[in-house]
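Subject — a protein and its fold

Tokens — whole-number codes for backbone shape
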Amino acid sequence: MPFFGAALLARTRVMWRAVVRPRVDVHVDGLQVIGFLSRYWIPGVAIRRIEPEDGMRGWN
């Protein structure tokens, strides 16, 4: 039973990261891209422009 609970918890975490969690956080000095299996940091000096598309939203 503990093995089944651990497997269910692991599967729930993977589904949470795949469906709900992917995002891009905008910081003063760069962007943090949080994906399915990894996180990436893009420094601000490497960004030339950002073009908003449908579906993008901001948090005030």
In short: The chain has a mean pLDDT of 81. The CA atoms of residues 4 and 10 lie 10 Å apart. DSSP finds one helix and three strands in the chain.
